[in-house]
Write a structure and sequence with these properties.
This protein is an alpha/beta fold. The chain folds into 2 domains: 121 residues, Response regulator (Rossmann fold), CATH 3.40.50.2300; 69 residues, Winged helix-like DNA-binding domain superfamily/Winged helix DNA-binding domain (Arc Repressor Mutant, subunit A). Helix content is 42%, strand content 23%. The strands form 3 sheets. Strands 2-1-3-4-5 form a 5-stranded parallel beta sheet, sandwiched between helices. Strands 6-7-8-9 form a 4-stranded antiparallel beta sheet, with no helix packed on it. A 3-stranded antiparallel beta sheet has the order 10-12-11. α2 runs parallel beside α3 and α6 crosses α8. The chain is elongated, with a radius of gyration of 22 Å. Bound molecules: calcium ion. Calcium ion binds next to loops.
């Protein structure tokens, strides 16, 4: 499902270009052109992120942001501030904005900020798994200890991170692309082959029968799924 973004901006030209830009990136974009209607939509509907201009008719971006937080909405907010207003950034962050971008901005910069913020939000929404057990395996992610049948195993850092990532999303299909982005953070020389090799190592160490895994499943053409 694509992320929903609310753009609150009163310059028609900017509304058009930003909407086009984010839609082309696969986001669902709605817009409001003044403070009060922006706030009303943000309160009434579910959005993953709000791109909020500071200078708006009716109610400025600071007020909108403050009222959103006062109403208990923790939606991610990216503020658009004018270059001359040095103080905007500080005030915006104080009032609960998650990030800011100074106008005029490069389109690629906006897309990068939006994606980074959405990633952060999605991460934060997951309860981090500190310890986990499945089959005859026990994992303590904080200490980095893994035991199978009570016997300590040696897992490399990436193997542990990969295992934790899959376990935190257990029951769900995780694509190789997602793993490349979030576990390997797009390191150069890392390919989907690297992921497959790490998965094979994990199976070798953790599964009773690595050829016929009971926990780390391959989802053909997509990626992997962990199951208890
Ligand atoms: Ca404006």
């Amino acid at each position: 499902m694509s992320s929903r973004i609310l753009l609150v901006e009163d310059e028609p030209g900017l509304v058009l270009t930003v909407t086009d830009l984010l839609t082309a990136e696969g986001f669902e974009v709605q817009s409001a052109t003044d403070g009060p209607s922006g706030l009303a939509r943000a309160l009434a509907e579910k959005f993953d992120l709000i791109v909020l201009d500071v200078m708006l008719p009716g109610k400025n971006g600071f007020e909108v942001c403050r009222e959103l937080r006062q109403q208990g909405r923790d939606v991610a907010v990216l503020m658009l501030t004018a270059k001359t207003q040095v103080v905007d950034r500080v005030v915006g962050l104080k009032l609960g904005a998650d990030d800011y971008l100074t106008k005029p901005f490069h389109p690629a910069e906006l897309v990068a900020r939006v994606e980074a913020l959405l990633r952060r939000v999605k991460h934060d929404n997951l309860a981090p798994v500190r310890g986990f057990s499945f089959g005859n395996v026990e994992v303590d992610f904080e200490k980095g200890d893994v035991k199978k049948n009570g016997t300590p195993l040696n897992l490399a850092g990436k193997e542990l991170q990969l295992l934790q990532y899959l376990i935190e999303r257990r029951g769900k299909v995780v694509s190789r692309e997602e793993l490349l982005e979030n576990v390997w953070e797009y390191q150069s020389a890392v390919s989907s082959r690297t992921i497959d090799v790490h998965v094979a190592w994990l199976r070798q160490k953790l599964e009773d029968n690595p050829q016929n895994p009971r926990h780390i499943f391959t989802v053909r053409g997509v990626g992997y799924r962990f199951s208890v």
